[in-house]
Amino acid sequence: MIVALSGGIGGAKLALGLAQLLPPEELLVVANTGDDFEHLGLAISPDIDTLTYTLAGLDNPELGWGRRDESWACMETLAALGGPDWFRLGDRDLALHLLRTARLRAGETLSAVTDDIRRRLGIGARILPMSDDPVRTRIGTDTGWLDFQDWFVGRRAGPAVRAIDFAGAGKARPLPAVLAALAARPRAVVICPSNPFISIEPILALPGMREAIQASGAPVIAVSPIIAGQAVKGPTAKIFAELGTPPTAAAVAARYGGLLHGFVMEEGDEAAGIAPRVFRAATLMRSLEDKVSLARAVLAAAEALR
Amino acid sequence: MIVALSGGIGGAKLALGLAQLLPPEELLVVANTGDDFEHLGLAISPDIDTLTYTLAGLDNPELGWGRRDESWACMETLAALGGPDWFRLGDRDLALHLLRTARLRAGETLSAVTDDIRRRLGIGARILPMSDDPVRTRIGTDTGWLDFQDWFVGRRAGPAVRAIDFAGAGKARPLPAVLAALAARPRAVVICPSNPFISIEPILALPGMREAIQASGAPVIAVSPIIAGQAVKGPTAKIFAELGTPPTAAAVAARYGGLLHGFVMEEGDEAAGIAPRVFRAATLMRSLEDKVSLARAVLAAAEALR
Predict the structure, then answer these.
(1) Which of A74, A100, A117 to mutate to test the interface with B (most CBs of B within 10 A)?
(2) How many A-B residue pairs are in contact by the CB < 8 A criterion?
(3) Looking at residue A297, what is its pLDDT?
(4) Contact A74 B92 (CB under 8 A)
(5) What is the rounded CA–CA span in Å between residue A246 and residue A5?
(6) Which of A78, A88, A91, A114 to mutate to test the interface with B (most CBs of B within 10 A)?
(7) What H or E segment, with its residue span, contains residue B242?
(8) A120 and B77 in contact by Cβ < 8 A?
(9) Which residue of A39, A133, A236, B267 has the fewest CB atoms within a 10 Å radius of its CB?
(10) Closest CB from A76, A83, A101 relative to B41
(11) Which letter does DSSP use for residue B205 in this model?
């Protein structure tokens, strides 16, 4: 079993690569839920959905989020009625949100709903939230704390980040199925090339999660989301800089501290000072071939570290 | 001021006719909310919406409900995900439902949200719910009680009606703005050609509503929804028959008892035994001209009864 910790788009790309190589029962993708929020009465889980749509082949390559072949009649009408349209939900994407919200209200857990939806979309690998308890990432800025989506989507990640908080993480329980997978001697724990600050650290902030990863005995391998000082997508490099560290692969490795045994990073990038064993790979994932190739490199690193 | 009590499609047609003849500030349409329900976490008010879409010129003439130029991407996707699709909500219609639901959850009243939406859609006449308190029509059948939409849409109004109950009506307060309009000496109270059992009687069942209508001093005029023993649309004739009364215009007038001063009915129909004064008109409303013509007949009846 490979246990992969993931945020949205970058993590989903590697997860798709891993899903091409592994039998479905040997891949568990653990999704960050710190980005989750309630909007228009809907329970929104961006990273779960990006993973689900990507593994189902339904992701929207133009947007980088949401569903393929999407239409926007509802959002257009909502805007015409004076409703909030800053967080865009396509007509097809809305169906998933309505269904999830109704089932959560009826008492089902986020993990049960997530698991059912991925099955219905024909995904073999498991996708599970890091916890069924709410965790909400908040961004500290010069003008105060902002809810994550307000900062990320509402303000296009503009205000400089001074601090990050995971509200609720202190009393959220890691999902039992994730702990069980970690306890069952996985082949590796893979930290996907996601934003360390806002995609991976909420997962690691859950009480007992770091300990469970360390106790698993599995090699822990992170893939750098930084290539040549740039993030492929999203505000990773910006957050590093605003928190006072130049955005480098080495800075990513340093964020995970003693947790890592292996670190997969781009060929030409500077590896000086990286404590875990370094594996070189082509980490930019454009094509499916790129994703499979990086996944193969990650599995090879896991093999080398056993 | 004309105060019109209305259900969905038939009532909305007459309301549209009245809106063509009256200055906007002289028409108040009071919508039945007994058909309202929660579905997929959304607050659904079918009669308010039919009135709103009809008066805004956005009604869907093919379906007889919902919005014009509608698309169904969300519902199709919901069905594919195994979600409930028996109550169909179009992509554009969903926007109104999301907005209303979010605003109700944020503490606004149904009347405030309804009033704001009709303004945004450019409707001059007022459309208000009969009450801001929930009333839920339930249908007694041979196999037990059913929620109204479960009976009406879910079972296509199939199970024979043995009894009808308006849950919550006993403690729901008539909308203060409606009581105020009735207290301000309206020119007439018009009971639209809606289903008496399920569209008009929930309004009349509110404590104090009948009394307020009677105390208004205005002529009360009903328009028959039955023409030649048939309902133009919906289960009106079926319910009459199942409750043991042949569906006739006279039976409609009898349902409203002593409340009526005038009764507008189709030319050739039998008027024997009808207590209020009978006015003959063409009551089938196909074209806008038909609607305006019937509205003119109703206003003439009001004039005659003053």
Answers:
(1) A74
(2) 104
(3) 98
(4) yes
(5) 24
(6) A91
(7) helix B236-242
(8) no
(9) B267
(10) A101
(11) T
Minimal CA–CA distance to A17: which of A63, A53, A54, A46?
Answer: A54
Question: Which tokens hold the place of B273?
Answer: 């035994």
- What's the complex ipTM? 0.92
Rounded-to-integer distance, Cα A43 and Cα A65, Å:
16
Average pLDDT in the B243-268 region? Answer: 95
Asked if A91 and B82 come within 8 Å (Cβ–Cβ), the reply is: no
User: How far is the CA of B40 from the CAs of B83, B85, B108, in angstroms?
Assistant: 9, 10, 20
Q: Hey, what CATH topology would domain B2-305 get?
A: Rossmann fold (3.40.50)
Task: Domain A2-65+119-305: state its class.
Answer: alpha beta
CA distance B122 to chain A (A): 11
B55-111 residue pLDDT tens: 999 999 888 889 999 999 999 999 999 999 999 999 999 999 999 999 999 999 999
Question: Cα dihedral sign for B160, B164, B168, B169?
Answer: positive
Residue A52, pLDDT > 90, answer: yes
Cα distances (angstroms) measured from residue B116 to each of A100, A105, A293, B15, B245 = 29, 28, 55, 19, 41
Closest-CA residue to B101 (of B53, B166, B147, B36): B36
Cα angle, residue A229 at apex, residues A225 and A230 outer, rounded to 5°: 60
Range with the poorest average pLDDT among B56-65, B256-265, B285-294: B56-65
* Residue corresponding to tokens 């009506």: B169
Q: Do the Cβ atoms of B120 and B129 come closer than 8 Å? A: no
Residue spans of the domains in chain A: they are 2-65+119-305
Contacting residues of B for A73, CB less than 8 Å apart:
70-71, 73, 90-92, 95
- Bridge-based pairing of strands B230-231 and B226-227 is antiparallel
How many alpha carbons fall within 13 Å on the CB side of residue B291?
19
Write the DSSP assignment of A79-92 as a string of letters. HHTT---SS---HH
pLDDT at B306 over 90: no
Which residues in chain B touch residue A98, judged by CB atoms under 8 angstroms apart?
Answer: 40-42, 74, 78, 83
Beta-carbon separation of A120 and B95 below 8 A: no
Report the amino acid identity of residue B262. Answer: G
3-state secondary structure of B302: helix
Q: What is the 3-state secondary structure (H, E, C) of A27-38?
A: EEEEECCCCCEE
Which among A76, A77, A89, A113 is the top mutation candidate for probing chain B, defined by the most B β-carbons within 10 Å of its own β-carbon? A77
Indicate the burial class of A84 (C-beta count within 10 angstroms; 0-12, 13-18, 19 or more). Answer: middle
Interface residue B75 vs chain A (CB under 8 A): yes
- DSSP code of residue B48: H
